[in-house]
Amino acid sequence: MHQEKLRIDKYLWAIRLFKTRTLAASACESGKVKCMGDNVKAAKAVRVGEEYEIKTSARKWVIKVNALLSSRVQYKEAITFYTDITPAEEIERIRFEAAVFHTGKRLSKIGRPTKKDKRDLDEFLEG
Fold first, then answer.
1. How far apart are CA 92 and CA 99, in angstroms?
2. Burial (0-12, 13-18, 19+ Cβ within 10 Å), 8
3. 8-103 belongs to which homologous superfamily?
4. pTM of this prediction?
5. Could you state, in order of their start, the residue ranges of all structural domains in the chain?
6. What is the per-residue pLDDT across 27-67, written as a single tens digit (0 to 9) for each?
7. Could you tell me which of 77, 50, 52 has the C-alpha nearest to residue 66?
């Protein structure tokens, strides 16, 4: 399970920041993974103690590597392999966005009228 050399794309997939290793690799190639401000390629070797900035579709992460993990494990175990050092203002921004997020589902009794509502409306307009 533990190795001395481990690719960054495999590590990010194993600690569950990305659903697939392909997504992790494409994030590296598109400049969404940085180490000390520099873009990181997918083949870069991860070292314990390094800090990475990662932009996923959900949020921006700043993590510090605690240990290397090469195979995907349960979330509870995976979170022990890194420390989330994301700034508090970024976490607060995410909470705010989540609070105002609109799911697109209509609330009960609000939205498109039912057939009965349409009949009642037609009856009102005619009469």
1. 11
2. buried
3. RNA-binding S4 domain (3.10.290.10)
4. 0.72
5. 8-103
6. 999 999 999 999 999 999 999 999 999 998 888 999 999 99
7. 50
Strands 60-65 and 51-55: antiparallel
Alpha-carbon span 64 to 47, nearest angstrom:
10
How many Cβ atoms sit within 10 Å of the Cβ of residue 65? Answer: 21
Q: Is 26 helix (H, G, I), strand (E, B) or coil?
A: helix
Which of these, 78, 75, 24, 82, lies nearest to 54 by C-alpha position?
24
Task: Give the per-residue SS3 of the chain.
Answer: CCCCCCEHHHHHHHCCCCCCHHHHHHHHHCCCEEECCEECCCCCECCCCCEEEEECCCCEEEEEECCCCCCCCCHHHHHHHEEECCCHHHHHHHHHHHHHCCCCCCCCCCCCCCHHHHHHHHHHHHC
The kind and range of the H/E element at 91 are helix 88-100
> Quick check: 102 pLDDT over 80?
no
Check: CB of residue 65 under 8 Å from CB of residue 74: no
